[in-house]
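Lab notebook, bench 4. Still working through the backlog of constructs that have no structural model yet. Next entry is a single chain of 304 residues. Request: give me the structure tokens for it.
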Amino acid sequence: MTLKNTVEVAKSCSLVAFVASCLVTWHLYQFLSNQTLSYNQSATFDELNHMTEGFWRLSTPLNKTRKAELDEMFVRYWKHQKIPVKRWGENEKCGYYNFLDSVPHSSWPRVGSWCNPEGSHPCCNNYLNGTCGEVSNQTCNCSQCVDTRLYEHAELSNWITKDQSFSWNKYVGEDACQVIERSPFKDIYFIGDSFMRNMYTVLLMILANDFEKGPWTINMTNQQRELCVEMNTLFYPACRPLATNGQKLIQKSCVDKNFNVSFKWWPNNSNGRNFVKLVQNLSGKRGSLLLLGVGYHETILPAK
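Model written out:
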């Protein structure tokens, strides 16, 4: 993923998590498509790379109503978390290292400033430390440039693979259930940080074929029932306790469910012992799949 892509991903983690969870299901399907367990790993991972290399293509015509709903949802969350609502400053400085003023009493890390996509200077000439400028090849099309007019919520776009001879199916509901039920995996663990939690949460939505209340659990509070609906489930801290164990769901996702999906919040190497212990406990047992992902909490920053 390029540095420019991170601008878009930061605005669209919900759909990215959906794509990632679809890819997990797709990868299980690819596993089953092979006749033996000793399948060609290099070929399979080449296919996976082809599926994850691509770009978002904005759907046309633009759904302005949906865009307004998404804008409102993100602004509401930013205000709740004391994140700057306006994404550009008055001095027309831009880039990861040109920080916006922090909201008073905010504990959120400082965020970079970008250019106004609807203004007269929409292009940043350097994504690390640049200046917003008028539309030109020097400010919009160089290798270090960011043309903010090109970025929109991924929910308003379609994912196009770089190699369009590769395509993937959006397994939802019973189809997704059958893919996993037919696989050799009976215990699936998502382990890591918030992105892994979102992958896990969206997989629950996919299996339940319910993107509004799919991850709801039997011990939810009234506050969570009001707040944790649709994409809000992926953002708000109050919704994070929902992502624990698939066996505690209110809505049983699969008719003949013979597997369990769970999440472990182990976001960095300080949880290494827990991970090793889990692996040791599973050693020698068939049917376990561990999906591990860490990064941000190890100070792996997008600008580096």
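Notes after review: The beta strands are 54-58, 93-99, 112-113, 123-124, 130-133, 146-147, 157-161, 187-192, 260-265, 288-293. Residues 1-16, 29-43 have pLDDT under 50 and may be disordered. Flag for follow-up if needed.
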